[in-house]
Design brief:
232 residues, globular, binds iron/sulfur cluster
């Protein structure tokens, strides 16, 4: 459990602004979801993103612990993605989302709107436009994909006629959810190492931090070293 977190509504960012990214570029090649976005990353993807010279933003949100909601699937889903921290005498759940900057465009997108790291692109890029959260319904109207992306031909590659996703896509979504849970504690510990200890209430906005690349890389390394020491 971490200590010393405070809560404040610092920056309001729409959820759509941090849940982005391209994957059906192989169908349409528009690159729309690779521009003006933040790309949520796993911890290992964050290190790779930084190593390529990209910038990473950190979005932090918190919510109170409600034992009475212990059987609420949505509460449990978010709790599993959170680290426990103390704020005064309270214990809060804190979620830190590390997201590669694609502002104004992803640094991995070339002039032909092609992903230059396609084989190594982040999980969310492989999953988009499908939703990772089991509690958000896919709405094509809320996605940046052009109309042709939703043609029957393109759609068959993503969504079966009964609305289910392919086994491959389903595995990617599970991998993303699993990484969210596995990385939760370390991501918050990295925030603490960087002195990022103010958050916002979930649903009201996010605390947004823009760490310098080198500082974030060093904090990730220090956090990993600490974890290793604890295992020895
Ligand atoms: S990594 Fe590739 S697919 Fe992902 S946002 Fe960047 S250019 Fe698009």
């Amino acid at each position: 459990m971490f200590a010393g977190f405070g809560v404040a509504t610092v920056t309001s960012v729409t959820l759509a602004a941090i849940i982005a990214l391209a994957a059906i570029c192989f169908v349409v090649g528009c690159g729309s979801c690779c521009k003006g976005r933040f790309v949520p990353l796993t911890l290992s993807e964050t290190s790779a993103w930084l190593a390529r010279g990209g910038d990473v933003a950190i979005f932090v949100e918190a919510f109170a612990q409600y034992p009475s909601r212990a059987s609420d699937p949505e509460y449990l889903h978010h709790s599993a993605r959170a680290a426990q921290v103390t704020s005064g005498s309270a214990v809060l759940n804190v979620i830190a989302v590390f997201a590669g900057s694609a502002q104004p465009a992803c640094p991995n997108l070339d002039e032909q709107n092609t992903c230059t790291i396609y084989e190594d692109r982040p999980l969310v890029c492989r999953i988009y436009p499908m939703e990772i959260s089991p509690f958000i319904t896919l709405k094509p109207s809320e996605k940046d994909c052009p109309p042709e992306s939703w043609s029957d031909q393109a759609k068959d590659l993503l969504i079966a006629s009964d609305g289910s996703v392919s086994a491959e896509l389903s595995a990617l979504i599970e991998a993303s959810r699993s990484a969210d849970c596995c990385d939760a504690l370390q991501k918050v510990s990295i925030c603490e190492l960087l002195g990022f200890n103010v958050t916002a209430w979930k649903g009201n906005g996010y605390a947004l931090y823009l760490p310098e690349r080198r500082q974030l890389s060093e904090a990730i390394e220090r956090s990993a070293a600490t974890q290793l020491q604890q295992l020895i």
